[in-house]
Amino acid sequence: MQPASAATQALRQDLRLYETAPARDGAPFWAIQDPVLNRFYRIGWLEYECLLRWPGDPAQIAADIASTTPLAVDVAQVEEFARFLEQHQLLMASGAALQRMVQKAREPGWRDWRWWLHHYLFIRVPLVRPERFLVRLARALDPLFSMPALLALLLASLLGMVLVARQWDSFAHSVMDILTPSGITGFLIALVVSKTLHELGHALVATRLGVRVAHMGVALLVMWPMLYTDTGESWRLRSNRQRLAISVAGVGVEMGLAGLATLAWALLDDGSLRQAALYLATTGWVLSVALNVSPFMRFDGYFILSDLLDFPNLHERAGAHAKTWLRRQVLGVGDAYPEHLPPRARRALVVFALVTWCYRAVVFLGIAWAVYAFFFKALGIFLMLVELTWFLAKPVWSELKVWRERWREVRRPRRSGLLALLLLAGGLLLFPWRFDVTAGGVAHAQRQQFVFAPLPTQLAELHPAGRVEAGAVLARFESPDLAAREQLAQASVDALERRLAGLLEISGGREKALATEQRLQEQLAELRAVREEAGRLRITAEFGGQWRDVDWLRRPGTWVGVKVPLGVLTDTDGWLVDAYVGEREVHRIASGAQASFLPEGGLRALNAEVIAVDSTRVRRLAHPMLDSRHGGGFSTLADDQQGTAPSEALYRVRLRLHEAPPQGKELRGQARIEGGARSLVWDGLRSALAVLVRESGF
Fold this sequence. Notes:
By secondary structure, the protein is α+β, with helices and mostly antiparallel strands. Helix content is 49%, strand content 17%.
């Protein structure tokens, strides 16, 4: 249908027109409501004047507006508005348009697999029409919408945060318990409660402001259920502050619930109620800040920002400005911007659009991984490819097609420059660059002697901390039981020796002498074993070094167990670093490569050299301080008996430090190792091929 004929078609009789809040510059605005789809379309003064004269010839409409109002209008603007009305089916359908609508109504819709392919990311399922219930609930909760109630909520939340800060270690430890199966179940229940109240917050504020909540239901975000509330009629409000109140209500209720739950956790004793308060607190604080407040997706943060700026369709308008800016900057074409804005506002929109694109790229990549990980492999791979193609590759390809079609408009010098820049970028990606490999590790002395009691015994002597020489006594123990056993064995030996001498002097005592000799050998063996055991009660230094970490609470005469460390002797002349590198990077490290080690919290890195690279993955971390449960950078399997088996494939790389750490003790830190040269393109292709090979088995 031609645009000119669209202007001659009558408007639908069921449409409604509302005057809304004016713009910041005072320009009037109206909203067209489509009651069938419950959608609102914001229009300005020019479009309003067109509606007053609709239908008619575009030229006559433009001439009448220009003669009776101060607006400067041409025929093209009227025709563009006619196309807008036709595109959104706001005109009385006739002819070809009616046939298209009938054909679309006959489509199978959700019963067709192609519909699910295009809509699986986000599906809305209306469940209830809560208008009457919300009116009664709003009257019952009217006292909560007062200033005293708001101040009491703020003070309670502030008090809760102060009390939690005073017992932060206990709170952080409790948060880690959420990662258990029962904790995850409780977290999901808290999520349902929190999000239900979140949506009720939107609905109640909208109801109090006279906005009808058409329906509430469940939205499936990549098959993940989320509650939603239809507050589209808020565009009928003439106050931006009222629309902002509806947008903020959900986050406000959720954070208020989190504040009260925080206070409850701080005041309650350990138990199920306190754990439930913890779930509600973490759900509200974390998800409200991480998800709802973000303006880069169409969640509450986006609508809050749009209402604050009074800038509807922020994403679409910012994206249009950013596309035009890219074409002007890259291709050098003189495209006009979609709408006239001050330069500062236009730059802000372009920056916002670029950040939004990057943010959404990360989110869509995360969703692609999620659909792959949570569905069975065949469906997961298919949905991941759909996600990457439809939401990432397709928009980029569509814009590149526009660039290709307009390539002839680009001036020859700029063409040459763009081609040269493209070739340079390709060369840089193909060129093998040297990239360092970073890995977590622990610096320790090359030789260490840990001192423990050989058996539960009594401490007799403990060498004070400091420098010791080889052979010095580090610790000496006393065991009354061993002393008694030694005395008993010695007495038995003496008695048997005297008896044996007497038997040999009498006649006929040879046979008895043989039995006595056998018993004597047994007692001598017992005596030697007891003396060897007693020799272990004296621990000497195996080498000269620094004797440190001495437990000064262990005084002579105290009893110690075999698992109680009494100190460690370190050889200060040689220091090593045990660094752990992932499977993808270990092949780039060779013996003799230069490296450095930066201790945790240190300001200067220590020079080092690679002396060994393990060829097999480690089964367990040799240093517990590298475990993420102790502040390290490596996660371990929870069901491992040792508790230190890494959850990913790690290989140990041993470094020799050229100098000792200033602290002179075992330290955790980051190692930076010189890696072999690699091409970014080749490395990416090899990684992708490895993933395909690994995931090809079903």
